[in-house]
Amino acid sequence: MPGQKPIKVALLGCGTVGTEVVRLLTDQAPDLTARVGAPVELAGIAVRKPNKHRQVPAELLTTDVDALVESDVDVVVEVVGGIEPARTWLLKALRAGKSVVTANKALLADHSGELFEAADASGADLYFEAAVAGAIPLLRPLRESLAGDRITRVTGIVNGTTNFILSGMDSTGASYAETLEEATRLGYAEADPTADVDGFDAASKAAILASLAFHSRVTAAEVHREGIASVSAADIAAAKGLGRVVKLLAICERVDGSESGEPGAGESISVRVHPAMIPRTHPLAGVSGAFNAVFVEADAAGEMMFYGKGAGGAPTASAVLGDLVAVARNRVVSGRGPRESAYAALPVRPMGQAPTRYHISLDVADRPGVLSQVAAVFAEHDVSIAVVRQEGRVDDAGLVIVTHAATDAALRSTVDKIGGLPVVREVVSVMRVEGEE
Ligand code: NDP
Ligand code: HSE
């Protein structure tokens, strides 16, 4: 290795993640050199406010991002976030043949197509392991290790903030608002938690997961998204009563024509983010607090679970460094990592046509014929009932119904019509059910 030309790295961003990237690059320099086969040299660090106090070499700081990207660096590591100007910087780097490592899920979810095209045109690498589930090795297993298999489903808890809140509601019985306040006080939720609690963050990650798992281009706009703000203490209690727990899930599933029930329908995919009840025995049910986990099902490999820290400076920097080593190794041998694989181009089904199951909890009048009126609405919408449980009270009854799979549109229409029946006093809780049939 003596005399081996160094791999020069431009770091864009030096906040929570970037600071840890610099620390790992510095602390582990001799090991990284040995692993890559050449020294990895930090050529510059782009920030917005150069005078801010930080634990990084001051002489490397710059605000001239374009000049840094255009300099003789081999690799650009982007940990700034947001769409612009990150998109412009990375396109410029890729077009110039510089490899890119990024943790930017928002950018990847909306612009992976043009980024991959730029990378392919110049033969550069584009790696983004940290963009989904932080430290957890997940994207490279999907992109490389499982490239010979047929993935059928990816179900993930990919947002730590919402998992922290839902876990808190489950353990204390407190309301969403109370638990969000606690999560903010403890620093788990940001001052503006919208991107997390409304499911935007998870939807970006779902788009990236679906694109890789199904060899298709899926954007965040194509992901059906529901957040957790409407999850009530009653929903959590209803789940508990049935041995289930409520999680915000990112679900990416392959739907073949026969499953869809539509004659002649070809294969498609459903990509969605919403709260759902899962059995307490499901591997994802035990994932609590701010942890992430992703459950992958594939034809030959069967079921796999990836679990760990989905955020935080050091865990995320670990994934960034893993990518940096990979792209640096490729450059040393003048090779290249995998290109985009979007050949399957599977269409994304609208949510109304996605196969889902519902749990419905009702307060109804307790008198003869009520159950048959409710059941008739299900039959009318061609929705099959899997479980019915009734609890008699003094002058009314609690009715819990869990359905078999039907299209989401049929289930929604069923719930709307049931809510209007005179014998139904209140629709207490409606939640999708996942992880069992
Ligand atoms: P921070 O907000 O902590 O850091 C952003 C950095 O980018 C700061 O150093 C900031 O400079 C710099 N920056 C912002 N705008 C510009 C600009 N116009 N020109 C130059 N520099 C700029 O973000 P994080 O470190 O938390 O996140 C970075 C990326 O990593 C995002 O894409 C995020 O989604 C992703 N990510 C983050 C995780 C986490 O746990 N934090 C987990 C997984 C992914 P300055 O310091 O001067 O303000
Ligand atoms: N805001 C994200 C979360 C972290 O709560 O999981 C980074 O993706």
Protein described:
The protein has 437 residues and is of the alpha/beta class. 36% of the residues lie in helices and 26% in strands. It has 15 helices and 17 strands. The model has no long low-confidence stretch (mean pLDDT 95). It binds NADPH dihydro-nicotinamide-adenine-dinucleotide phosphate and L-homoserine.
Using brief descriptors, characterize the structure shown.
alpha/beta; 36% helix; six-stranded parallel sheet; methionine biosynthesis; amino-acid biosynthesis; eleven-stranded mixed sheet; 437 residues; binds NADPH dihydro-nicotinamide-adenine-dinucleotide phosphate; binds L-homoserine
Query: Structural class from helices and strands?
Result: alpha/beta
The hetero molecules present are: NADPH dihydro-nicotinamide-adenine-dinucleotide phosphate, L-homoserine
- Enumerate the spans where pLDDT stays under 50 for 5 or more consecutive residues: none
DSSP strand content = 25-35%
Shape: elongated
> How much helix, percentage-wise, in residues?
25-40%
What value does the average pLDDT take?
A: 95
Catalytic activity: L-homoserine + NAD(+) = L-aspartate 4-semialdehyde + NADH + H(+); L-homoserine + NADP(+) = L-aspartate 4-semialdehyde + NADPH + H(+)
Enzyme class: oxidoreductase
Domain ACT: 359-432
EC number: 1.1.1.3
